[in-house]
Amino acid sequence: MPDYGEVAAREARRALGEDRQMNVDLYRDDLERLSAEEFYSAVREFTGIDGPLEDRIAEGYLLDFKSEWNEGALKTVAAFANTFGGLLIVGVQEATGRAGELAGVPVKAGQELKTTVANSIASNITPWPSCQVFDRALPADRGRQLCLVRVRRSDSLHLLTRGDKPVYVREGDRSVPADAARLQALLARLHRPAAPRDISSKRLEDVRPWLYVTHARAPASLGGSPEDREGSASFLHVALLPDEPLAIELDLGVERAVRSLIENSYPELLERVQYTSAQWREQRSRHDYRVTYLEHVRDHEMVWGVNSSGELHFVTEVSSSVAPSGCFWSLADVMTNLESAIETAHRFWDFLGYIGEGRLAARLEVSSLPLFRSEAGYEALFYSSGKILASDNLQAAVKEGIVKPTRTDAEARVNFATRTGSRAEVLASLTNQLLRDLGHAVDIADLRALHQPTAQP
């Protein structure tokens, strides 16, 4: 498979600052509240301008530098709007694709670079792209300004009204005219009907006869056989659903890749297969491939499935026994499984080289199980060293409700940017939706802080 997706994802992670400890997120925070000094410091920190050239942030799909506002900057804004969105910083001297110097753009007294930029976008790109423009003077030279243009991707086709090439898209670190294939894809997106609100829920229902988890009909202590199994009433189902169905020819290479992704994204599974009674099972047909993890000691089953349309599904039992107290479901385990599923989804689309958009849908069925909470907080019951364990943040984040429904669905949009740089946002959003539908209130900021990015190869 081509390494296009992996390279692009790595560039996006760098552009989104995933590897940097930033106090200000240039992609999301309200920059209007920043003083000129704070704005300048945030851009310096983001670009890494104080470090060696090779360590500074590089231009890519989501990031571009321009030393001045010109026609090339207009093309970049249009390309961002037609592709994945992005961040354009004007007033940065570029050096071999990286930030060279924060020189700013000279402006006359009483003028704002922001006004010039906004007017230029409005006059030369139609329809007006969804964007925000921020500017601040350089602290050491009030006659020069830095300008940041934050562009959101949309389903409209944004045309540059000047020149003979009206449609631009982002290709790596360049803004280029759309070729016939890209133009056709953009037009198809433009005329694509809006998906019904319940399309994800329907897809989860469609997959249930094919993908589900089981448990032993009777415990071993009562003479039950681990092989005599029935469908579980409590489960978590997470599905990655691409907007544009892919045409994947499943083969042994794809199967090996999926197994490797699973083993590297879910804590402890590989270790338990080696040292416990846990085992892997595989099933395949022309259009799908399934992997099952089954641990007999704790009667815990997890199933993953991929199909030839590029969907990735994960279903796991959520019931865990805490003898002699009985069975519970664990918030820490559910969040660990959500984060692992998001990580696997991201890596799977990277493997396929797919940089389009889609949905992450989740369904949580807790049946009559109570939520487990000990003196230490919302502890994990299945994972002993999972990504999300009992912590002060998780303890403070959740306020349990009195009325507790048993089933809930959640959905989050995923695209190139969110898959590679904003997994904390996706995890927090899905968890918030699931818990609110189960009658609980959560603090998204605390949930977001629990995210620990998995090291990338």
In a few lines, what is going on in this structure?
The chain is 32% helix and 26% strand.
SSE diagram, text form:
Elements: H1 4-15, H2 36-47, E1 63-66, H3 71-82, E2 86-90, E3 92-95, E4 98-102, E5 105-106, H4 113-124, E6 125-126, E7 131-138, E8 141-151, E9 159-160, E10 168-171, E11 174-177, H5 180-191, H6 199-207, E12 214-216, E13 229-231, E14 235-242, H7 252-265, H8 269-275, E15 279-284, E16 288-295, E17 300-307, E18 312-317, E19 319-322, E20 326-329, H9 331-352, E21 358-365, H10 392-397, E22 398-399, E23 407-414, H11 416-421, H12 423-437, E24 441-442, H13 444-449
Parallel strand pairs: 1-2
Antiparallel strand pairs: 2-8, 3-4, 5-8, 6-9, 7-8, 10-11, 12-13, 14-18, 14-21, 15-16, 16-17, 17-18, 19-20, 21-23, 22-24
Helix pairs in contact: 1-9, 7-9, 9-12
What does this structure look like?
The protein has helices spanning 4-15, 36-47, 71-82, 113-124, 180-191, 199-207, 252-265, 269-275, 331-352, 392-397, 416-421, 423-437, 444-449; strands spanning 63-66, 86-90, 92-95, 98-102, 105-106, 125-126, 131-138, 141-151, 159-160, 168-171, 174-177, 214-216, 229-231, 235-242, 279-284, 288-295, 300-307, 312-317, 319-322, 326-329, 358-365, 398-399, 407-414, 441-442. By secondary structure, the protein is of the alpha+beta class. Strands 15-16-17-18-14-21-23 form a seven-stranded antiparallel beta sheet, with helices on both faces. It is elongated, with a radius of gyration of 24 Å. 40% of the residues are buried.
